Amino acid sequence: METYRNFNAKILLFGEYSVICNSMGLTIPYQAYSGIFRQAETLTEEQQHSRESLKGFYKYLLQLSGKNELLTSLDFKKFKNTLDNGLYFDSQIPQSYGIGSSGALSAAVFDHFGLTKMETSLPELKRIFAQMESWFHGISSGLDPLISYLNKPLLIHDKEKLETVPMPKGLLSGELTTFLVDTEQTGKTNNLVQLFFDECRHYKFYKEVKDKLTPLNNRCIHLFSEGDIPGFLSEIKLLSAFFWEYFKPMIPSEFHGLWEKGINEDLFTLKLCGSGGGGFLLGFTSDFEAVQKEFKGINLHKIGQSL
Question: In terms of Cα–Cα distance, which of 161, 151, 224, 164 is closest to 24?
């Protein structure tokens, strides 16, 4: 029986949408959710559904290879033989939640069936993963599979400059709690990303993204990475307010009240986690116990406990 590697979910701490316009980004692996290849002779309905999805992914990649368009080399014979012997992806990563369910699967396929892994640079890996994951979303940056594959925090300087970095000091600080808010809704990544592209065709919106969102996002990354909590809490308020003004369609309506409260008061601040529309929101606070009371009945997950 084959031995398979586990692939963790990811959290894009900073850079959603703005990274498309060449801002910085900061993403980390998230061990609370993961996926792994398994094989079985008899499959449950859920496992069979996973296998059928894998078959579709296999055909997509094989078609690209047949047209000499695939950016990497895969062992398609091994891939098909393993599929025929009951291969499926056993994943606990919630789908359409913005934490990399399709990214983990893309990383697993590349890791297990790739033929040219060792000599591949980070920017090249990102391009390969963007092409692979586009089967699921239509558009992909390649970052989700990359972070799952590397299983290390990743700092994106721009589209061509990427580096693995230590865990951000903001996550390790006793002064700050970073947490996920479960909206209990799924998001539609491709629809929301397309909406963003449509908005960027308007010069005024694009200028706001380039002149305001990108610098705000980059400052938050620097302050969070260095553990400057007072400076970070000031900047994250501005980032949250920007999302509220320009990205409201990406914020589930049931959380509009809490989002505004986070902007106007000092207890917590919310931002998008991924493309939005559902899934998880990301929150920051210096008093998590008080936040739990404020968010009564809503599932919260402290990120620092699952790294």
Answer: 161
Decide which of 232 and 187 is more confident: 232
- How many C-beta neighbours within 10 Å does residue 286 have? 17
- Which domain range does residue 246 map to? 169-306
Q: Is the pTM of this model over 0.85?
A: yes
CB of 39 closer than 8 Å to CB of 53: no
**Cβ contact 140:133 at 8 Å:** yes
C-beta contacts of 101-104 below 8 A and 24+ residues apart: 101/9, 101/35, 102/133, 102/136, 102/137, 102/144, 102/145, 103/10, 103/129, 103/133, 103/143, 103/144, 103/145, 103/146, 103/147, 103/148, 104/7, 104/8, 104/9, 104/34, 104/35, 104/144, 104/145, 104/148
**What mean pLDDT is predicted for residues 139-151?**
90
Number of domains, the chain:
2
CATH number at residue 79: 3.30.230.10
pLDDT higher than threshold 70 for residue 197: no
pLDDT digits (tens, 9 = 90+) for 202-258: 778 778 888 898 999 999 999 999 999 999 999 999 999 999 988 888 899 999 999
By the 8 A CB rule, do 268 and 285 touch?
Answer: yes
Name the DSSP class of 209. Answer: I
- By DSSP bridging, strand 268-272 and strand 280-285 are antiparallel
The better pLDDT of the pair 267, 43 is held by: 267
Buried b (16+ CB within 10 A) or exposed e, 124-150: ebbbbbbbbbbbbbeebbbbbbbbbbb
Q: What is the CATH number of the domain that holds 240?
A: 3.30.70.890
Do 101 and 236 belong to one domain?
A: no
Q: Which residues contact 155 (CB under 8 A, 6 or more apart)?
A: 24, 25, 26, 162, 163, 164, 165, 221, 225
